[in-house]
């Protein structure tokens, strides 16, 4: 990849702004509802008007947040059984040993990037609000090296990503455009792009426009990936390969090599372009060396209603039940708090001489209480009796219990021990747990599809990034690291040239194991 120079105003800035607006307009309702879900599951569960009125009256406003625990239960279960990619060859040029090396390189990239953090972050957002993202990028190994490395990174705020509205694949493999807004310190911006006018990319959508994202020391930029297709003629050669004519000397080189053209057809060249831009200037531009957009979505659940695609997670349909649970628990607490304390019934004069002990009988644990056996007139009086207050409302307690069961049903998370009465064996209990897990298996399955797309994108990048001879670390299936030289030219015993661990030839695919 070549670094670009700062350019004058580019009409594709308007294209990026137009795409951002279209993507936000098409997804406005999903963004608003997802933002509400995210706030709700993190404790903002009371309507503002009701909360304010109760606060003014000094009445309790309790939040018993059960949804967060349900979400963590699903996410933590995903963490316990995370799948791993496995590389397979797809044509005669592929080699089984090279496939194992490539698979080891992918494991190294995951370990070097702490990719588990990216996977877990995306899965957590998908469970809570409906979608998250995983990002792939390339960077130089060090400041004094020309070797590049591939990294897998989390997207901490999914609302900063504006994805192709025409993408329908669950892993985003068909996406052709994507824009993500990023923050950069103004001092770093001035050092890296001297002479460029500082102007923040102010056009943003729901969830990406809160005031806390705008500071005096930072500037917001946009990174825009888009696909360019150019018509080209594809040639089938006598050696079995297919290629485009890249220059005027193409046919002369074929003739000198003794290769002829067998067939041809009209096709197109697909290129992913990358631009980093402010609102008025393109500050960085290059080709992205892959046929996939390097931002992979992880979806929760979705349904198409009419021409609108609704995306949601576990929280969406359980919010009303959680509100009811909070209300009934608050009402129960309030009724108990307002209930009178237990009082003592005695004849007048029985506490004479011990007035302080009886006055503090409800707030102190005294070892004994003394009383007179006669009243104020000296007549015999019965033993003082304690008057018990009314018990908590049974209806309120029953309502709270039923709503708690409703929340479990809506979230699809049950206690397997409660599914069947009586004693059950461990095998039967495990079978019940598996049935419970199936309710939310779609979240795990969608993450698996997205992780497969991440591995497929890395697989497409490896021949371009690791295209020279270099020593890299690979990690085996057992987690043991090893050092391997890629693209190493050697001489065979017959005096022929050969390249060991050549990752630039052959076609490979990946499946999740």
Kindly name the structural category: alpha+beta
Got a strand count?
A: 19
User: What share of residues are in beta strands?
Assistant: 15-25%
Our Rg estimate from Cα atoms comes to: 34 Å
Explain what this protein looks like in three dimensions.
This protein is α+β, with helices and mostly antiparallel strands. It contains 13 helices and 19 strands. The chain has helices at residues 12-26, 28-41, 48-56, 67-80, 96-113, 115-128, 186-192, 250-256, 319-338, 355-359, 394-411, 426-439, 441-465, and strands at 85-89, 131-140, 148-154, 161-163, 177-185, 218-237, 242-244, 261-277, 282-288, 295-299, 301-305, 308-312, 343-345, 385-387, 470-475, 481-486, 488-491, 497-500, 508-512. The strands form seven sheets. Strands 4, 5, 6, 7, 8 and 9 form a six-stranded antiparallel beta sheet that branches. Strand 8 (261-277) and strand 9 (282-288) form a beta hairpin. The protein is elongated and about 135 Å long. Residues 1-7 and 210-214 have low confidence and may be disordered.
């Amino acid at each position: 990849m070549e670094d670009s120079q700062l350019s004058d105003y580019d009409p594709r800035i308007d294209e990026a702004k137009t795409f951002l607006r279209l993507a936000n307009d098409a997804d406005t309702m999903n963004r608003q509802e997802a933002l509400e879900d995210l706030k709700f599951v993190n404790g903002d569960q009371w309507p503002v008007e009701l909360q304010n009125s109760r606060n003014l009256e000094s009445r309790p406003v309790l939040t018993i947040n059960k949804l967060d625990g349900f979400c963590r239960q699903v996410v933590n279960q995903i963490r316990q059984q995370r799948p791993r990619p496995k590389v397979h060859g797809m044509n005669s040029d592929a080699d089984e040993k090279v496939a194992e090396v490539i698979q080891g390189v992918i494991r190294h990239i995951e370990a070097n990037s702490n990719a588990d953090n990216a996977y877990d972050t995306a899965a957590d957002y998908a469970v809570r609000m409906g979608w998250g993202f995983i990002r792939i990028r390339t960077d130089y190994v060090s400041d004094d090296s020309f070797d590049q490395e591939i990294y897998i990174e989390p997207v901490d705020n999914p609302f900063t990503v504006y994805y192709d509205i025409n993408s329908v694949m669950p892993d985003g493999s068909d996406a052709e455009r994507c824009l993500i807004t990023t923050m950069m310190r103004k001092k770093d911006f001035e050092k890296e792009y001297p002479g460029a006018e500082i102007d923040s990319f102010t056009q943003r959508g729901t969830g990406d426009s809160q005031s806390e994202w705008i500071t005096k020391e930072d500037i917001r930029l946009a990174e825009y990936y888009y696909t360019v297709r150019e018509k080209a003629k594809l040639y089938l050669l006598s050696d079995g390969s297919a290629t485009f004519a890249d220059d005027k000397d193409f046919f002369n080189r074929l003739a000198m090599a003794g290769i002829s053209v067998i067939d041809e057809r009209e096709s197109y060249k697909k290129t992913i372009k990358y631009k980093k831009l402010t609102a008025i200037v393109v500050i960085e531009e290059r080709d992205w060396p892959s046929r996939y957009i390097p931002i992979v979505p992880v979806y929760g659940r979705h349904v198409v209603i009419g021409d609108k695609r609704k995306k949601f997670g576990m929280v969406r349909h359980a919010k009303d039940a959680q509100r009811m649970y909070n209300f009934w628990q608050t009402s129960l607490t309030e009724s108990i708090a307002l209930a009178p304390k237990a009082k003592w019934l005695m004849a007048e004069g029985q506490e004479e001489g011990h007035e302080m002990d009886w006055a503090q009988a409800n707030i102190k644990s005294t070892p004994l209480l003394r009383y007179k056996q006669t009243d104020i007139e000296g007549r015999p009086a019965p033993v003082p009796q304690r008057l018990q207050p009314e018990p908590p409302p049974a209806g309120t307690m029953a309502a709270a219990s039923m709503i708690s069961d409703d929340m479990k049903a809506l979230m699809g998370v049950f206690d397997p021990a409660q599914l069947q009465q009586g004693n059950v064996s461990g095998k039967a209990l495990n079978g019940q747990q598996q049935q419970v897990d199936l309710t939310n298996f779609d979240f795990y399955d969608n993450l698996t599809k997205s992780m497969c797309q991440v591995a497929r994108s890395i697989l497409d990048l490896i021949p371009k990034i690791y295209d020279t001879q270099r020593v890299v670390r690979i990690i085996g299936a057992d987690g043991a690291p090893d050092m391997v030289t890629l693209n190493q030219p050697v001489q065979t015993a017959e005096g022929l040239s050969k390249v060991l661990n050549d990752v630039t030839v052959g076609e490979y695919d990946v499946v999740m194991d």
